[in-house]
Write a structure and sequence with these properties.
The protein has two domains: 206 residues, Lipocalin (Beta Barrel), CATH 2.40.128.20; 29 residues, no CATH class. The mean pLDDT is 92. A hairpin with a 6-residue loop joins β4 and β5. It is 18% helix and 24% strand. The relative contact order is 0.15. It has five helices and 13 strands. It has 291 residues and is an alpha+beta fold. The strands form three sheets. A nine-stranded mixed β-barrel has the order 3-6-7-8-9-10-11-12-13. It has a two-stranded antiparallel sheet with strand order 1-2.
């Protein structure tokens, strides 16, 4: 259909109207007041991190993005992997929920030989994961293990108590020097950078894991955590992980931590050592129980 002068003019007018409407929208948005950045209540001039917090994600199953699967421990089946014999009776309770992952960039940068060890760990999860034996979770796993923890902050001290296994961390706000010995929870030294509590963690044993998927580290692990209060009920958590023996470069995880809202919320006892006595020492009974 040939263009006429009237059609050309009408088209130009329509384009001009669209441009005008877009410009008005931009001006309107620019004129709206910008909400000020959240400023947390203060403790001795610093953001108040006091409270009971908990993560809400699948990081303890696997830091990286993963699909749902039938179990953490698998064995070959006729048409694909099936739950291993020791966990088959758990059914859906023993399955792994899917997760989007908390690793920035999506992938943990293992060295080739270390990646092979990670896969071996995963295949032998039932006998190797330290959480199964109620060993202390280490850092950063203590933060996203699916149980609450409590931050105590005063003008001069910061302390974290975890419900899981009664784990604790005293965060030194004045550097005491190198850690005298390696330990499950390491040595934590903190300082403030504006609204963020930065915690430098060293002196960590090589026996803890990052998750149930076999992700691990060596005794050269160095973790730098960042806790930033972004709303009344959220702390944005970040951990930078360095271990030149296992990884090709430093990498990060990040996640929100949520304040527990129950009126009577408190940390309860979860001293799981006694829960695994039968697993670890049952065979040494004078009369072992039937398996």
């Amino acid at each position: 259909m040939p263009f006429t002068k009237k059609k050309v003019i009408a088209g130009l007018l329509m384009c001009a109207a669209v441009v005008l409407m877009a410009a008005q929208a931009v001006v309107f948005m620019a004129a709206q007041p910008v909400a000020p950045a959240y400023r947390a209540p203060r403790v001795a001039g610093h953001p108040d991190l006091n409270g009971i917090w908990e993560s809400l994600n699948e990081a303890n199953y696997d830091l990286e993005a993963h699909m749902a699967r039938a179990a953490l421990a698998l064995r070959p089946g006729p048409y694909g992997p099936v739950p291993a014999a020791p966990v088959v009776a758990l059914g859906a309770v023993g399955s792994v929920p899917p997760g989007l992952g908390v690793v920035e960039g999506g992938e943990i940068p293992y060295k080739p030989e270390a990646l092979a060890k990670k896969k071996e760990n995963q295949e032998n999860w039932l006998t190797r994961d330290p959480e199964i034996k109620c060993y202390l979770p280490g850092v950063p796993r203590a933060t996203y293990i699916p149980q609450p923890f409590q931050i105590f902050e005063s003008a001069t001290q910061t302390f974290i108590a975890y419900q899981y296994a009664g784990a604790v961390r005293n965060i030194f706000m004045k550097d005491p020097g190198p850690a005298p010995v390696d330990s499950w929870m390491g040595q934590s030294v903190g300082h403030w950078e504006g609204e963020t509590l930065v915690v430098d963690v060293t002196g960590l044993l090589d026996q803890s894991w990052f998750d149930m998927a076999g992700n691990y580290h060596s005794d050269q692990l160095h973790v730098v955590e960042r806790y930033t209060r972004t709303s009344p009920d959220i702390i944005q958590y970040e951990a930078k992980i360095e271990d030149p023996k296992i990884f090709t470069r430093p990498w990060k995880i990040s996640m929100p931590l949520y304040r527990r809202q129950e009126k009577n919320i408190q940390l309860l006892d979860f001293k799981c050592v006694e829960f695994v006595e039968e697993l670890m020492y049952g065979q040494y009974r004078k009369k072992p129980l039937a398996k």
